[in-house]
Amino acid sequence: LRYYLFTHVHFEVFFNADRVIEINVSTDPTQLVDISEDKPDVGDTVDVEFTYSVKWKETDIAYERRMD
């Protein structure tokens, strides 16, 4: 059994004026680290570097209608 940790997260933020209307989050399947080990020792650590990106997009959706 293999365990993978996604190391990059992308946020897509939709806004109207000064209000956030919606946020979508996704991972990049090409950026991952295999954290599997056959029999890890207690206290073993793995150094992993995480990254993120943000794309801001303006929308016409009113704040009051954000849940529709």
Polypeptide structure, described:
The radius of gyration is 18 Å and the shape is elongated. It has strands at residues 4-6, 8-16, 19-27, 32-34, 51-58. The strands form 2 sheets. Strands 3-2-5 form a 3-stranded mixed β-sheet, with no helix packed on it. Strands 1-4 form a two-stranded antiparallel ribbon. The model has no long low-confidence stretch (mean pLDDT 91). It contains no helices and 5 strands. The protein is mainly β and 68 residues long.
List key phrases describing it.
0% helix; 68 residues; elongated; mainly beta
Q: Report the portion of residues in β strands.
A: over 45%
Instruction: Give the helix level as a range of percent.
Output: under 10%
* Radius of gyration of CA atoms, rounded to a whole number: 18 Å
| SSE arrangement, N to C | EEEEE
**Number of strand segments:** 5
**Overall pLDDT metric:** 91
Assign the structural class, choosing from mainly alpha, mainly beta, alpha/beta, alpha+beta, or little secondary structure. mainly beta
Stretches with pLDDT under 50, minimum 5 residues: none
Report on the biggest sheet. 3 strands, mixed
Strand order of the largest sheet: 3-2-5
Task: Count the DSSP helices.
Answer: 0
Describe the SSE topology:
Elements: E1 4-6, E2 8-16, E3 19-27, E4 32-34, E5 51-58
Parallel strand pairs: 2-5
Antiparallel strand pairs: 1-4, 2-3
